[in-house]
Amino acid sequence: MNSREIRSKFLTFFKEKEHKIVPSAPLVMKDDPTLLFVNAGMNPFKEFFLGIARAEHPRVADTQKCLRVSGKHNDLEEVGRDTYHHTLFEMLGNWSFGDYFKAETIAWAWEFLTEVCGISKDQLYVTVFEGSEDEDKLEMDQEAYDHWKKILPESRILMGSKKDNFWEMGDQGPCGPCSEIHVDIRPEAERKANPGAELVNRDHPQVVEIWNLVFMQYNRKADGSLEPLPEKHIDTGMGFERLCMVLQGVSSSYDSDLFVPIIREIETISGVSYGKAEDTDIAIRVIADHIRAVSFAIADGQLPGNTGAGYVIRRILRRAIRYGFSFLGMHSPFMFKLVDVLTRIMGEAFPELKAQRQLIVNVIREEENSFLKTLEQGLSLLDQTLKGTQGKTLDGEKAFELYDTFGFPIDLTSLILRERGYSLDQAGFEKSMQAQKDRSKAASEINRDDWVQVHQGEGSQFLGYDTLEAEARLI
Ligand code: ATP
Ligand code: MG
Ligand code: MG
Ligand code: MG
């Protein structure tokens, strides 16, 4: 089954169970200040879960674009190193707003995976919340356990801790116990020799979590306490790339048809083959991943910038550019050339990619041009500095210079340092950053009464008093 068919099987399955199929919300939700990016399928429905708004349809299903690069859900460090975490991914979900609850959710998830997708029952494990003894004092989820017991042997139902089996979106908001489904895709002989149950939730690349069934029962308040939600809801999220990996019989989501054409294109452009060495493979995976995140963000109106969500996108793009530069020898813009192949793969399901194609290409090419101008100099400054450094820590002031003069986001500097076996003087970096903010603030105060004139072509434009302040780059 190709990815298009898999996506459509999911949506059709739930449509037949009377769900309304809705399009993905944009990655950036302008009206939710608690969230930089949508990081789970449930985000756009938060108000229904909280009881602030009423859903028109009590049952909904969709595929939601998610980005996990900041805040509570940040997978950036894993991406490219492992084979199943992405920055941007699709989360397939079915929802019940005060309608069905645990019985249907569990039965349907099982039906979809085993009957529609044909995954062997012997490869599946599920987890159930075991309860908690901390200040929340939550009980074990007996109800979910009993539903699972009707379907599969007890040896395949595992107890899970709060960390894995109590889902919370952030520090506040709707939350509840969850049951997760894991798939063991190791070869049969290996599966027989060593039971997969022991590998669940152990970051094993081939015993992976695929679907999270969340039973929304509580709201976490600002003071940290839990209150029951007025109505109970269902929120499920299944990693689409992981499902494609399983159904296409490959052991990495980068080997599914969602990524292979992008990887082929990177190989063509760089002349470096995938599957030859660990460091170039990581670079290729990072680039194949990051082009998706950056393109979708731009398509949804979030351009790279100096603050907030824009700076997160810039960091992701610069990270990919640096991987290409250092490991694949890409010293001129190349990321923008991947937009077409991405649009071919995903443009049908996400027409915004097609509609914004030219903008995406232009913005990425511009960003590449500007960062590549300073990247080489910055890297050589870093190497020289490290040569003269005693010990294994880079001075915070130097890291600040890389940030300020060469445009190196601090997480990029940390990453490069780690590769070289060094660490970063984070406190020193922050001190330099603060000093610069103080300086530019003082400068803008001095200039308060001056008109700033900037000549642009024929006319001249008033940019206001606070230009310096606005230009001071913030993290
Ligand atoms: P993991 O433990 O693998 O990091 P998670 O428990 O953080 O996943 P959930 O918040 O439960 O993930 O999200 C629901 C589903 O979304 C997961 O079961 C998984 O299939 C998928 N998923 C989560 N994070 C990613 C990611 N970074 N890339 C691809 N798929 C993901
Ligand atoms: Mg995670
Ligand atoms: Mg998990
Ligand atoms: Mg999970």
TrEMBL record:
It comes from the Bacteria. Its cofactor is Zn(2+). Its EC number is 6.1.1.7. Binds 1 zinc ion per subunit. Residues 1-475 form the Alanyl-transfer RNA synthetases family profile domain. Its main location: cytoplasm. It is found in: Cytoplasm. Keywords: Aminoacyl-tRNA synthetase, ATP-binding, Coiled coil, Cytoplasm, Ligase, Metal-binding, Nucleotide-binding, Protein biosynthesis, RNA-binding, tRNA-binding, Zinc. The keyword Metal-binding applies. GO terms for cellular component: cytoplasm. Signal peptide: none annotated. It catalyses: tRNA(Ala) + L-alanine + ATP = L-alanyl-tRNA(Ala) + AMP + diphosphate. Belongs to the class-II aminoacyl-tRNA synthetase family. Consists of three domains; the N-terminal catalytic domain, the editing domain and the C-terminal C-Ala domain. The editing domain removes incorrectly charged amino acids, while the C-Ala domain, along with tRNA(Ala), serves as a bridge to cooperatively bring together the editing and aminoacylation centers thus stimulating deacylation of misacylated tRNAs. This is Alanine--tRNA ligase. It comes from Robiginitalea myxolifaciens. The lineage of its organism: Bacteria, Pseudomonadati, Bacteroidota, Flavobacteriia, Flavobacteriales. The chain holds residues 1 to 475 of 870 of the full protein.
